[in-house]
Amino acid sequence: MKETQLWSLTAYEVVSLLRKKEVGPLDVLQSSIARIEEVDPKINALPIKCFERAIEKAKNIDINRELKNPKSLLGLPIAVKDYNDLEGVRTTYGSAIFKNNTPKKSDATVHQLELNGANPVGKSNVPEWAGGHTFNPVHGVTRNPFNLGRTAGGSSGGSAAALASGQVWLATGNDLGGSLRTPAAFNNVVGLRPSIGLVPRGRRLQPFDSLWVEGPMARTVTDVALMLDAGVGHAEEDPLSFGSPFNSFLKSLGKFPLPIRVAFSEDLGIVPVSQEIRSTTKKAALSIQHLGVQVSDEIPNFSGVLDAFHTLRGMLLASMMGDLVAEHRSNILPDIIKNVEVGYKATSHDIINAEIIRKKITHSMFDFFKTNDFLICPTTSVSPFSINEPFVNEIDGVKCQTYIDWFAITFALTMTGCPVLSLPCGFTENGLPVGIQIVGKPRQEGKLLAFAKSLEDQFNVSKFVPVKVF
What we know:
By secondary structure, the protein is α+β, with helices and mostly antiparallel strands.
């Protein structure tokens, strides 16, 4: 196969070619670079390139040594989200304050992947500090490859758009309230929010926070499993991190039977969801019955979870960014400042109540899993919206109170502590991607990935990436 065509293959297929020495790391890298140069000027998914660094690494990789490591990616190029530090490469967090920041070392997430043969080729675009639409004052807006006038989502929008357009095979993402899952759905790719600690986190985060996780993004479930194998592990700087309970997530894909019973909800009983998202996801969920799986409408009790998340998210952002806001207030997006202020204004009653609600939803999920194997719902309440809109103000006549309310259906599930995978399931009448969330039991990513692979085969929509970019 010509190296220029490698970008159209899956990560699993390319790594298989590398293992058989039918192509080399430099061949694969050159295919990625050529594709980036061809399409990224239209999309702006990877505004920071590190081609020279990647070429040097590809030239010096010891392929025979890497072949001894079953988890090695063998020099496969990846995109690194611009919230993750990458040694020697500009990392801005989407902020003008850090537009010239160059970390001296990679964070724990990226370091683990590099140890297992990943070769970063560029930094993927992000919103300024946080958000569901990828635009910032340093690099501008990222466009959706399926419609260049629509958003790629956020905050891992650059990663998702780079995957969907064939620029890279794998990309890092992170997820506090849906930052990995929302862009996965908007771009017809797969994103996994794993259990806390499975993928190690860098020192920029609060070490004992249990809301923000790092996770893999790819074009297929198999590719997500491949990346997860390369990314898991304990890091000293992340006290919550741990080694994988599975020898290989990739090998576990075919080792679990289909579940007996799953539940589907159009809205979790708490959030507005547009009619086109409801109809598309419901059609996909009902098709699961063709696999012999029962589909119920039983769901856990999510009452109070949205307010509780707002409180806990505010506290996290305040602890991470309070000093920065005090020093650089005029150079920070007003919506981010408001979120930080939520943390400072939270009363002891607010904090205690948020933790009580989180405890209740945890117990409710435990009871739910006694009679159901998985919970399924839409990944987003809306389809990709215009790049000219900073966020969604209204959903089917229901006004959003804050700039993050439109992705409440993802942050409600953040509060469960369960692993959640966003899987493409269909398209709107206008050809925009739609995804579902699949929620599994904590630390049972192997079973979650295996079920998601069965659904991916059933839905048969992953074949539409990489998409042709007009």
